[in-house]
User: Which sequence fits this backbone?
């Protein structure tokens, strides 16, 4: 008989030993832990707590205020403020205790699967094929004389779409056996959904970036966390390579002035070069509220917009007659537009109706002679030097080709309209759990369909001494199978349930 000695402390020069439970007690502890996670009570408790947490998430912080705002609101109520901080009630569905609740439910589901699902596999893989070894059948007939052979019975069952195998003393047939695995699919789908929720809690983030229209770009965005802190994320793809997002244009559609209807942005993604400039174009998309751009594991949503300046800007297109290239610009009054070496333009005036020709802008052309350069003015902007050749001309919105056809110059202007200068508000998010959750939802519907709308049907035929007896079972929708079983009995010449023995389920 072995004994376990526990010493208060190691003796000098002796090797200390760690006390261990006997194998039977250790197995008992493991069994208790396993039974705890298998219990229906734990399942009900988890579901009840999830239900209460969802209710609490609706009322505790309905405005999604940050912790800083909550601290201001409850500055004189330290108990309430302490509960918000410790339980992370400002972001309940991403709190530590809600994540533990999801983990508990996942472990509960895994334990139930380990305990019960292998029995289903064994039942499907190694079914009992002899009628006289099966007890408790709801559908069963007494033996009746027959002239049919086992092969003839098998052919009749195959005609009814059954899979048939020969058995000792008879025939065993079944169909829809994989209906048993519907519950497996449901368990797997729930584990995917729970795992996706936990993954999203640990890895997902989202932030915002305001990118000016007309060529503004961003290489980072700001994540505003629920506790009020901010974190700056660089724009990098899955391989850690940096990139830029550029807003070529922003369009605001209004029912009437001051009543926005819809807005959209033309975005392009470029590889970020070591000097910070844009390199290779990687993607482009016109995004709307429900149509984002996805690149590098990030999703760019059209979330908001804001007007950056009180004044208006002119939307113009500049055509290079030499190359045929045309670029679009949003030009502010007096903003230099560098077209070529020593050649620049500025928009200096606007009229709503120029001599009956409609809206027009005045453009000043400045051509520097060789050796001279523009000079910085008092406001810091570059201005033409005193040696520059200055000319001006008007461009008309209603006659877009007027400047191209009537002015001898390499560059021709087209004026469209005056527009406010906006920055598009992008919501940038990364959530690798989304495909996992979607896959779980798809499998959940598939598993529910298999579990509730299919049935595993089994039929036993016993032939002995010129007599035939039938038995049948269905793990779901027994009444419908009962009618099918009666038809089988009639087809094989055996009295149905009304003319023979019917065992209790």
Assistant:
């Amino acid at each position: 008989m072995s004994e376990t000695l526990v010493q208060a402390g190691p003796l000098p020069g002796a090797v200390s030993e760690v006390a261990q439970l006997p194998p039977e007690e250790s197995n008992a502890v493991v069994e208790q832990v396993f039974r705890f996670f298998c219990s229906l009570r734990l399942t009900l408790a988890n579901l009840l707590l999830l239900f209460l947490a969802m209710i609490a998430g609706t009322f505790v912080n309905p405005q999604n205020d940050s912790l800083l705002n909550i601290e201001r609101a409850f500055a004189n109520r330290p108990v309430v403020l302490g509960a918000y901080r410790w339980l992370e009630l400002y972001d309940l569905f991403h709190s530590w205790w809600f994540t533990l609740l999801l983990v508990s439910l996942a472990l509960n589901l895994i334990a139930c699967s380990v305990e019960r699902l292998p029995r289903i596999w064994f039942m499907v893989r190694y079914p009992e094929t002899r009628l006289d070894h099966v007890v408790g059948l709801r559908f069963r007939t007494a033996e009746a004389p027959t002239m049919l052979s086992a092969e003839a019975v098998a052919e009749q069952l195959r005609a009814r779409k059954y899979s048939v195998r020969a058995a000792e003393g008879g025939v065993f047939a079944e169909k829809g056996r994989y209906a048993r695995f519907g519950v497996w699919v449901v368990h797997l789908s729930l584990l995917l959904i729970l795992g996706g929720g936990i993954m999203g809690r640990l890895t997902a983030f989202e932030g915002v970036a305001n990118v000016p229209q007309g060529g503004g770009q961003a290489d980072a965005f700001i994540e505003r966390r629920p506790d009020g802190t901010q974190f700056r994320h660089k724009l990098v793809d899955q391989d850690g390579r940096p990139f830029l997002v550029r807003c070529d244009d922003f369009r605001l559609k209004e029912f009437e002035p001051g009543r926005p209807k819809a807005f959209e942005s033309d975005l392009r993604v470029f590889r970020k070069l070591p000097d910070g400039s844009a390199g290779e174009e990687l993607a482009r998309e016109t995004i709307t509220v429900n149509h984002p751009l996805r690149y590098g594991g990030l999703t760019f949503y059209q979330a908001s917009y804001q007007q950056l300046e009180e004044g208006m800007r002119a939307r113009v297109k500049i055509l290079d007659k030499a190359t045929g290239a045309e670029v679009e610009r949003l030009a502010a009054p007096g903003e230099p537009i560098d077209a070529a070496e020593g050649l620049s333009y500025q928009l200096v005036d606007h009229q709503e109706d120029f001599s009956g020709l409609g809206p027009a802008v005045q453009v000043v052309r400045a051509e520097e002679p060789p050796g001279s350069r523009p000079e910085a003015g008092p406001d810091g902007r570059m201005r033409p030097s005193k040696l520059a050749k200055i000319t001006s001309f008007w461009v008309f919105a209603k006659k877009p080709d007027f400047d191209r056809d009537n002015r001898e110059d390499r560059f021709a202007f087209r004026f469209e309209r005056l527009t406010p200068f906006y920055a598009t508000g992008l919501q940038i998010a990364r959530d690798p759990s989304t495909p996992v959750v979607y896959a779980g939802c798809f499998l959940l519907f598939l598993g529910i369909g298999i579990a509730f709308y299919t049935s595993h049907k089994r039929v036993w035929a016993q032939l002995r001494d010129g007599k035939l007896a039938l038995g049948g079972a269905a793990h779901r929708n027994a009444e419908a199978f009962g009618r099918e079983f009666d038809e089988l009995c009639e087809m094989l010449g055996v009295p149905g349930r009304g003319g023979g023995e019917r065992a209790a389920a």
User: Anything to note?
Assistant: Residues 96-125 form the longest helix (30 residues). The chain has four domains: 27-115, 129-176+455-505, 202-310+423-437, 312-419. Residues 1-19, 498-505 have pLDDT under 50 and may be disordered.
